Amino acid sequence: MFALFDKTELKRYGSFLGLVLGAAVITTVIYWAIFGFSKWSRQVQTASDLMTAAAVFPVLQQPYTTAIQQQPAGQFVCPQHGAVGLPNWSAADVPNCPICGQVMAFRRATSNMTLAA
Fold it and tell me: Could you tell me the CA-to-CA distances from 23 to 14, 30, 76, 116 in Å, in that order?
């Protein structure tokens, strides 16, 4: 049976991977030292919220979601803060901004539209 990579190639790939991971760790540690761990964790959470803001929302939410079930791809947007992540749903099935509590609008994605980052 033949080897997919010889030892020199594996050593090169291992070195490259080690350098990339080392650079990421060193950069993160320097960022923590300058700005603090709490700011870093808030920014990571914000980035996570923005990535899931365009996710398809649960279809079980009624009656608000029935109006937008025809084209569920889009993003919830706060009138004051913009795209901040997934909304907090009230008891009346109204999407509220997780920051200020205002009612969020749902912007549908069209074929020529890019969602806010």
Answer: 14, 10, 35, 29
Q: Which residues pair with 78 in a beta bridge?
A: 82
Peptide bond into 63 cis (omega under 30): yes
Say whether 108 sits in a helix, a strand or coil: strand
Say if CB 97 and CB 78 are below 8 A apart. Answer: yes
pLDDT band (50, 70, 90) for residue 117: very low
Amino acid at 94: V
d(CA 51, CA 90): 22
Cα–Cα distance between 71 and 57 in angstroms, integer?
11
Contact in structure between 50 and 78 (CB atoms under 8 Å): no
- Residues 48-107 pLDDT 10s: 777 766 555 554 445 555 544 555 567 888 888 888 878 888 888 888 888 888 888 887
